[in-house]
Amino acid sequence: MEAPNECGGKVGFSNVQIDLDALPRFDSVAFQPVDPRHKRVVLALAAGAELVVLFLLFSLLALSPDARALFAGLPGALIILGVLAVAAALAGFAYASASVIRYAVREHDVIVHKGVFFQRETIQPIRRIQHVEQLQGPVARRFGLYSIRLFSAGTAKFAFEIPGLSADTAARLRQAILQRREEQRTHAPAPLATNEADDGR
Questions:
Q1: Are the C-beta atoms of residues 23 and 33 closer than 8 Å to each other?
Q2: Domain range 103-186, its CATH number among 3.50.50.60, 1.25.40.10, 3.90.226.10, 2.30.29.30
Q3: Signed CA dihedral, 181, 187, 189, 194: sign only
Q4: Is 165 exposed, middle or buried (0-12, 13-18, 19+ CB in 10 A)?
């Protein structure tokens, strides 16, 4: 089917309905888990945060008579136990969240799966990737793990991050994504010629 353009010529036009049953099935994607050591990294970070909170709490009790009076007796003990219970629950949730992180690299996109109660899949087209950053935090360094961040073209913030990767996996994954991006850009179809180009104007 052809439709006239503003210059009086005709351009190719297609608007065929897509058969949804013929689309690739998302549940057939073979996701890869992150390194099991990533859960230990998350627990170490959670434990560090909890120690900071406990240090501040006990410092307050040691330096302030009013705080000691407030936390004296059974009510104070219940408050402290409540704080510890919340901290343990948050650490457990962080551990569970780290356990379900999955990723997959397909021909045209990268997918990351996250979420314990509310599961979420983020898809980043490879052709739209601006650059891929490989990084390593101080805690992850102790476990020999890396993360990679994918930055989408036209945005300053990274699209998503894949944590818990060994050094070899992170390097190979980054190289494969960048190589695939260059291949797609190199073999991208040329834009349709305009009537002005056809007429030599």
A1: no
A2: 2.30.29.30
A3: positive
A4: buried
Task: Report CA dihedral (99, 156, 167, 98) to the nearest 10 degrees.
Answer: -10
Q: What is the mean pLDDT of the chain?
A: 83
- Give the mean model confidence (pLDDT) for residues 13-38: 83
Where is pLDDT greater, at 91 or 24?
Answer: 91
Q: Is the pLDDT of residue 196 over 50?
A: no
Between the two ends of the chain, the Cα-to-Cα distance in Å is 27
CA-CA distance, 1 to 12, in Å (whole number)? 7
What's at 170, amino acid-wise?
Answer: A
- In the chain, domain spans: 37-98, 103-186
What would the pLDDT profile of 93-112 be if each residue is shown by its tens digit? 999 999 999 999 998 999 99
DSSP labels for the chain?
A: -EEE-TTS-EEE---PPP-GGGSPPGGG---EEPPTHHHHHHHHHHHHHHHHHHHHHHHHHHH-HHHHHHT-HHHHHHHHHHHHHHHHHHHHHHHHHHHT-EEEE-SSEEEEEE-SSS-EEEEEEGGGEEEEEEE--HHHHHTTEEEEEEEETT-SSEEEEEEEEEHHHHHHHHHHHHHHHHHHHHTPPPPPPPHHHHHT-
